[in-house]
Design a protein that fits this description.
2 domains, alpha/beta, globular, UDP N-Acetylglucosamine Acyltransferase, domain 1
């Protein structure tokens, strides 16, 4: 039994979410999309599940699954889990370039995945993306690292699309540059990630921020950044990624009414 299915069948919260999601599963579009875009050996496993409404504007490009192990329901598009939005929000796929999945991923409702002819979007494994997320790749590419989280209504683009020129400088600069999001990044809601952005691993980005440069040059891992444009706020900080740890902490604070709890180095963070 795969780790995903074991978690679903042995955890009450996961079972509840799973069976709620089944009610929104778009079986016809799921089957059609898998056999339309994947090699037959992969398509037979039905690895991509689609929920709710979806618009296929273009499927001229390629969809690739590069995971070592391909299992049913490893890729969820429009998953109705984001509590802040109507799960009936439809998704849009407009793929003239390439979309790559390297492992399990959950993308919530209302997503827009757009690649131009030379564009590409590559997802690492264990990723969760919030509702109404816009990912647009023109030519340089977008790469999102393993186990990262990007909250609702965020935008990631590898291009500025429109050229500008200084009246004092004859040079016109390229408007495209690759975007690379590190592993274990937590990007909060309504963040805009512009062309040329690179982030280190284990980064937290505050809500409503603008990312527009290579942060790996001057921002260490385990940092919090934020603002427009984003700047360093705090170091030596990490999100608690371990689901069981989060559940226990939530239960403790709900039952005790306390505002803080001291934890030791043995507390699992991932």
């Amino acid at each position: 039994m795969s780790g995903t299915w074991h978690k679903i069948l042995t955890s009450a919260p996961h079972r509840r979410i799973f069976f709620l999601a089944l009610r929104r599963l778009n079986l016809i579009k799921t089957l059609w999309f898998n056999f339309r875009v994947l090699p037959l050996r992969q398509a037979l496993r039905i690895p991509i599940w689609i929920y709710g409404r979806i618009s296929f504007v273009s499927l001229r490009g390629r969809v690739e699954i590069r995971a070592k192990h391909i299992s049913p329901a490893m890729i969820h598009l429009g998953f109705p889990e984001d509590m802040y939005f109507n799960p009936k929000e439809g998704g849009v796929i407009n793929n003239d370039g390439k979309i790559i999945f390297n492992g399990p991923i959950f993308i919530a409702c209302g997503y827009n995945l757009r690649t131009y002819d030379q564009g590409s979007i590559s997802f690492g494994e264990g990723i969760k993306l919030g509702a109404k997320l816009n990912l647009v790749s023109h030519s340089s590419g977008i790469r999102i690292g393993d186990h990262s989280r990007i909250a609702f209504e965020s935008v990631i683009m590898d291009s500025g699309f429109h050229f500008i020129k200084s009246l004092n400088d004859p040079l016109v600069h390229n408007v495209d540059a690759e975007v690379v999001i590190g592993n274990y990044n937590w990007i909060s809601n309504r963040t805009v990630v512009n062309k040329g952005t690179r982030t280190p691993d284990n980064l937290i980005v505050a809500s409503g921020s603008l990312l527009n440069k290579d942060y790996t040059k001057d921002i260490p891992e385990y940092s919090l950044i934020g603002g427009t444009p984003a700047k360093f706020i705090k170091g030596n900080i990490s999100r608690i990624w371990n689901g069981q740890t989060e559940v226990k902490l939530r239960e403790y604070f709900t039952q005790s009414g306390a505002q803080a709890l001291e934890v030791d180095d043995s507390t699992p963070l991932k």
